[in-house]
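Readers of this paper often ask what the protein records in our data store actually look like. Below, we set out a record of this kind in full and without editing:
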Amino acid sequence: MDERDRVGENQLMIDRVGLADFLRRRREDLQPEDVGLPRGPRRRTTGLRREEVAALCHMSTDYYSRLERERGPQPSEQMIASMAQGLHLSRDERDHLFLLAGHRVPDRISGGDHVSPGMMRIFDRLTDTPAEIVTELGETLRQTALGAAIAGDASPRTGPSRSIGYRWFSDPAARELHPPEDHEFYSRLYVSGLRGAMVRRGPDSRAAHLATLLNENSREFAALWDKHEVGIAPRELKRYQHPTVGLLELNCQVLLDPEQAHALLVYTAVPGSESYEKLQLLSVLAVPVAAE
């Protein structure tokens, strides 16, 4: 089949030549500062190095290099999604990459997992700040190391448990992050937010699926759902009961991407406050985390 491999009935064909060329050109278009990496004084590489892109895409350098050399196995849909994010592709470019790799294009619905390049560029510069990118269902798509140090590493979570609203009513450990006196507000907030998402996305949406699961398995959720509260807004000041440093009081600033229903949350503490000093301590303890 020369440069193309058939990958199965009802599927497309992987275009190895086109895939290799597209990956190489997108890699060469990106500069270190575009993805939050330092530019060394002796750097001569056009764009990013293969090992840098591989790290951004959460794969081995050998695996990525083989794709640029028109070799290796067909990447899975998960791998393609990770490469699209690591290379800061637009949604049109992401769709093109899926087709080159022999996969159907993901549905273009708001609330998907692909973060826009503009939001990623901002996020990449927040290396010393607690921050996260979340969906309208409260699914964390990206975290800074300091963000994970505060709220826990979100990358291992799968299925409904990716949603903080779902975990709030299904996993008692989710509530340990906040002081008990704040729990009632968060319960109302998450129910209100899920109802709003379900109305926007319809009865066949993931929001509706989560609501059905929680109504069946949580009496608290079902009771609040029956109240039909909507429009409850998050508080700007958020309080976290951290197991190492104790109570943190953080201001949360929000940048919205309405096209993809994502929000970039940036947490700060008042300079000189006790919470500010605790953040400095956590920044020493924080370690990089993998993205979902």
In short: The domain at 4-100 is CATH 1.10.260.40 (434 Repressor (Amino-terminal Domain)). The mean pLDDT is 89.
